[in-house]
Amino acid sequence: MMEWSATSATKAYLDTLKLCNNPKRQSDSRKTPEPGSSEFVSALAAGMKSKLIVEVASGVSPSTIALAAAARETGGRLVCILPEPVLCESKRVIKDLGLKDLVEFRTGDPSELLHNYENIDFSLVDCKNEGYTRFLKLLDVNPRRSVVVANNLVGEKKGLEGHLRGMKEKVVVRSLKHPIGKGMEVTMIGRKEETHKKEGVGGCGRSGIGIRSCGSMKGTGGKSKWIFKVDEESGEEHIFRMPKSV
């Protein structure tokens, strides 16, 4: 089973915080605030030691920076599929932040490009894209252990909901939708014998890193704290929302 690295998760999390607040990005009027979600996905991708990371983006996004930071930590690479009109700006932002060698930009229809990438360890699809459900289904994920994130899953939009087609091996697929950022579904894929070693939240054994990030919650009047924990013995990943302090 792929090991979880608390050290890598922490480094990527802090690196993303630093990069997304870099003064070089302050003049970027098109950047979209994504409270907590960028740091969260960076830590998750780095902690599971992802080597091949694929993002289907709708435009210039902090998630691209976050995933590039994760790739830097793991020695992997990020493939970012995005629309042609935002390519130059995205390249400029990534270059200015010193992440150029970590990102492979591709433009065009994601449904025609995704088949070029197999055994993806970590993938993120921006649900602002039209046809995002089709892109989610076209991902060729690593059956041993991988994560698929459906980001900006607003309102009644639906992600994989635990269903993944085309798997040649018997795997367990678990999807949970969280009110992180503007809405995010995290789907975890793994072989049955590995993911079912232990069940339940807060199982025994050593716990991995507790990563806190702030995500805006509609109707709360503030920000909620999130903790992501991994049991290093069972490999179980758990996400908790902490009550907002009064």
From TrEMBL:
InterPro entries with a match to the protein in the record: DUF1442, SAM-dependent_MTases_sf
Pfam families per the UniProt record, alphabetical: DUF1442 (PF07279)
PANTHER family, A to Z: DUF1442 FAMILY PROTEIN (PTHR33593)
Protein name: S-adenosyl-L-methionine-dependent methyltransferase
Species of provenance: Castanea mollissima
